[in-house]
């Protein structure tokens, strides 16, 4: 039997088998990791699915296309602070512990989201309204930059042997759960409120919910132990936590940061196009009714959540690289045909295409968080992960809806987002082919 055949599916030695107390700790860690990302992505879903309403409230003096572009521009600009937030939260999380960084990031993030609910519209205070919206979105982006990376590093360090992919997949699952709940919530708002009620006060309700959810998440995180892997590092007299994580990452692991950035760019574009932008695309560009567009998105999100754990488990068996490369190839081949099929405007076709795209996305999304945790050592795992992940999202993720809308307006073709998705998948494939398999080894310590 070959060496590769022997290692596939092997139990890795980076953690002992879990007893009852350790299992309970893992469950608490999973809950703490889940809720922060849930709040973050519930906010993003609410903003994305209510983009046309928010455009009317904050940008009423421009035509509908320009208003939608302005709404997505605020969404994109809020990502500018993500790399800065990644440096801040990653530095804190590597020097002082994962749980403290996570407990503070959720507090700042939920507070900024909560305050959006109280913003007056353009009709009340003029240009100050969109400027205040932009300010709060930037604060939210800064704090959210510590969520995904910290939660993924936290879970990968807590995960039992041979199951890092499965356990860490709860992080992307929590993002999809937030999007799903946001989609359902906005669907109900559209169903029970008139357009005037939605523009007047209905759009504020989802943002109000961030306050109590954030406090619950902080309470859970404050009462957690840090990950066993990090506590073991912290107890060392020598070679303990990095004194300057950012400098160490850039000096010793810059190549891995660039690989992580390249691989994550596909996740960023595909995630925001498929799970956040498509309802707006179907309603604003294709002409599908808002409730049908949201319904198709809701169903496909439910499928996504079910598949994400399966893909995490499969990545434990066949490896991270194989899963990520396959996702790249499928997006290259199917990106344009998928948007061609969506152009038909038929609900059943749109639903089938969204489910297909979600299935391909889960191959990437269910694997990526674990992969990024595995390419950086414990001393700088939070910083390396956060820097590569958030820089890619700042450049490609936050701008995806804006670029897609702009490409359609510029080219006159509703297939333009499919071409954009295929090109980015090609870039990610090039990055992925430069690195070796990471799944069947202990988490690197140095």
UniProtKB/TrEMBL annotation:
Q: Please provide the record's keywords in A-Z order.
A: Cell membrane, Membrane, Symport, Transmembrane, Transmembrane helix, Transport
Q: Where in the cell is it found?
A: Cell membrane
Domain called Major facilitator superfamily (MFS) profile: residue spans: 29-440
Q: Name one GO molecular function term.
A: symporter activity
Topology with respect to the bilayer: Multi-pass membrane protein
State where it is primarily located: membrane
Q: Name one Pfam family in it.
A: MFS_1
Function as written in the Swiss-Prot or TrEMBL entry? May be a proton symporter involved in the uptake of osmolytes such as proline and glycine betaine.
- Where is the chain membrane-spanning? 44-62, 68-89, 101-119, 125-144, 165-189, 257-280, 292-311, 323-342, 348-372, 384-409, 415-435
What is one cellular component GO term in this UniProt entry? plasma membrane
Q: Which family does it belong to?
A: Belongs to the major facilitator superfamily. Metabolite:H+ Symporter (MHS) family (TC 2.A.1.6) family.
Quote the protein name from its UniProt record: Putative proline/betaine transporter
């Amino acid at each position: 039997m070959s060496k590769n055949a022997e290692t596939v599916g092997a139990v890795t030695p980076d953690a002992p088998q879990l007893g009852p107390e350790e299992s309970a700790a893992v469950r608490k860690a999973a809950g703490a990791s889940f809720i922060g990302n849930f709040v973050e992505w519930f906010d993003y879903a609410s903003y994305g699915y209510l983009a046309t309403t928010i455009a009317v409230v904050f940008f009423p003096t421009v035509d509908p296309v320009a208003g939608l572009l302005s709404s997505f521009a605020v969404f994109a600009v809020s990502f500018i602070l993500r790399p800065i937030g990644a440096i801040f939260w990653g530095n804190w999380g590597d020097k002082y512990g994962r749980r403290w960084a996570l407990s503070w990031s959720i507090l700042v993030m939920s507070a900024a989201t909560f305050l959006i609910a109280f913003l007056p519209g353009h009709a009340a205070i003029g240009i100050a309204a969109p400027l205040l919206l932009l300010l709060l979105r930037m604060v939210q982006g800064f704090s959210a930059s510590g969520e995904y990376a910290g939660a993924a590093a936290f879970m990968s360090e807590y995960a039992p042997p041979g199951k890092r992919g499965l356990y860490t997949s709860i992080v992307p699952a929590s993002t999809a759960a937030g999007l799903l709940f946001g989609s359902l919530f906005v669907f109900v708002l559209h169903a029970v409120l008139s357009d005037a009620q939605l523009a007047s006060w209905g759009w504020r309700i989802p943002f109000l919910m961030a306050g109590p959810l954030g406090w619950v998440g902080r309470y859970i995180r404050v009462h957690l132990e840090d990950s066993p892997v990090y506590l073991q590092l912290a107890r060392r007299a020598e070679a303990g936590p990095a004194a300057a994580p950012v400098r160490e990452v850039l000096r010793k692991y810059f190549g891995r940061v660039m690989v992580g950035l390249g691989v994550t760019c596909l996740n960023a574009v595909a995630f925001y196009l498929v799970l956040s932008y498509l309802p707006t695309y179907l309603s604003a560009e294709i002409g599908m009714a808002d409730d049908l567009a949201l319904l198709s998105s809701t169903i496909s999100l439910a499928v996504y959540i079910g598949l994400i754990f399966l893909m995490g488990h499969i990545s434990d068996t066949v490896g991270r690289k194989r899963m990520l490369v396959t996702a790249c190839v499928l997006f290259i081949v199917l990106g344009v045909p998928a948007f061609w099929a969506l152009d038909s405007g038929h609900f059943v076709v749109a639903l089938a295409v969204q489910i297909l795209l979600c299935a391909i996305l889960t191959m990437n999304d269910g694997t990526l968080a674990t992969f990024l945790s595995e390419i950086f050592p414990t001393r700088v795992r939070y910083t390396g992960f956060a820097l590569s992940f958030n820089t890619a999202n700042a450049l490609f993720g936050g701008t995806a809806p804006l670029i897609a809308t702009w490409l359609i307006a510029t080219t006159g073709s509703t297939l333009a987002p499919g071409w954009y998705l295929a090109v980015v998948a090609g870039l990610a494939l090039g990055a992925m082919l430069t690195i070796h398999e990471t799944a069947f080894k202990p988490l690197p310590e140095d």
